[in-house]
Amino acid sequence: MKVLVCIKQVPDMESRFKANSSGNWYDEADLAFRMNEYDEYAVEQAVQLREQLGDAADVTVLSIGPDRVVEALKKALAMGCDRGVHVQDPAVSLKDPWQIASIIATYAKDKGFDLIFTGMQSQDRGSAQVGVAVAEQLGYSCATTLVGFSFADGVVTAKRELEGGLKGVVKLKTPALVTCQLGLNVPRYPTLPNIMKAKKKEIAAIPGVDVLKEEALAATASVYPPARKGGGIVLEGDLNEMADKLLGILKEKTAVVR
Amino acid sequence: MKALLVCEYREGKLLETSYELVAFAEKLGAEKAMVLIGSEAEAPKVNGTVYLADAGKYGEYNPDVHKKIVLAAIERENPDYVVFVHSSYGWDLAPRVAANLKAAQISEIVDIVDGKFEVGVCNAKLRRTVTPKSGKAVLTIQAGAFSAAAASGTPQLERIEADGASVLEFVGYEPAEKKDVDLTRAEIIVSAGRGVGKKENVPVIAALAKAMGGELGASRPVVDAGWVEHSHQVGTTGQTVSPKLYMACGISGAIQHLAGMKKSDFIVAINKDKDAPIGEVADVLVVADVLQFVPALTAKFQ
After folding, report:
1. CA-based Rg of chain A, rounded to a whole angstrom?
2. Which CATH number fits the domain B188-299, given the four candidates 3.40.50.1220, 3.40.50.20, 3.40.190.10, 3.40.50.300?
3. How many angstroms separate the CA of residue B131 from the nearest CA in chain A?
4. Full-model pTM
């Protein structure tokens, strides 16, 4: 059972963001990067499957980007993946989702992966396209937004999160790709012994140009901060004074506070 | 310019979000046709062509087959844009259609700016305009970003068929957990977000809700962490609410949360971060630590 997990490194979302000098992406200076939250669920699910199947399973974790993404790969290896692949591309942020999917599909197409895990979206770009597009390019069956996963006899049973708390259950045969939603599992923290073990695991480097076969289908025209709601009041300063002011506003502007 | 709008249908009903697609096409200034894998009785009330395939035959969730039906409608209609709602149905199906057309997909559009499509970056802390480079483009629109058009008109139904063989098997739905609170009927909702820090601090927010005669709400991370029951979750995967007053305490304003509460009449946000995206929709933004400010406000109501 060959398993591939695709992960992305993204900035901490609590950061302050501003546009870069070209105005086509965010400025990456001074940002702390970490593994995309959705991908942590994907890694955890792949590692749990490896534990279920034992040495019959082999889990490869792949990430595309500049040298810093090796840190995210190391974390995934420390969580229990067997080997890493770093597709080297310092300009990854300028690629569109179709190109990212094509890079992954080009890498994966002759490797015989039975199951591919991705996050349902990245926290920075949020396109929710790459996983499905990889599946389409490889001709794999695919289910998205998983909050439940089980595997037996070559069949994945997936629980998809729909709106308003409703879930949809589907079965799909391998080869398959699933995209993972928050709440699918509880991603583990790498332990120190596992971090040490991970240091010995292989991370293969592949030049991005070797696996990029597609032109971009979409282009970013500009990146900028959002406009604020007109007329919104901002209160700052002394807590007690702010509470009094807010109470006055609520009495004046709403019918439910008197 | 022509847009093909893909309706949403679940548990035998047309979803209201289908009319948001109509509003988007109107804002885009595009002629529209629609496609529905559903039932004739639930066809959208719009003037114009609606391509209809029977959900009884093709299933409500069957993306491999739905893809073929949408592609067949595209073949007949030859639209410039194929538009979905960015929902569990849309984000699942849109990339399949886009890949088959080898067309650009632009996800979760919140607005149209000078003819370009505007989307969020980094949880809506930045915005980005995107332009397709392909002849056709597939679009998904953020739920709630385009106010639903009125349901008025008479569709001209055209039956559409496709090969119904699927690689996926839809087993069934699993209903939402039983609700112990119905937030959709609450006039005041006071919601706790990640900014409350830990489970032990949730009662601070609940006390304000109680003092104001409202209900306790929560954002997704708070529910996922097990601090508050799912029935209190506000957002696309929780409940969509529109109270007279919504107080967001320590909620930064992820788009899924905003989509679930921004129709509230009056919105107050309490957040340490003056730049948090919740400020975009807030009528009043109180820049403060929730654990300090909320007790001070609660005292005023007691």
Report:
1. 22
2. 3.40.50.1220
3. 5
4. 0.91
Q: Report chain A residues whose CB lies below 8 A from the CB of B236.
A: 163
For residue range B229-247, what is the model confidence (pLDDT) as tens digits?
888 999 988 888 999 999 9
CATH code reported for the domain at A2-210: 3.40.50.620
What pLDDT score was predicted for residue A227?
A: 76
**In this structure, which topology does domain B2-159 adopt according to CATH?**
Rossmann fold (3.40.50)
Quick one: closest CA in B to A132, which residue? B95
Q: Do B296 and A239 touch (CB under 8 A)?
A: yes
Write out residues 188-247 of A within 8 Å (CB-CB) of B. Answer: 215-229, 231-236, 239-240, 242-244, 246-247
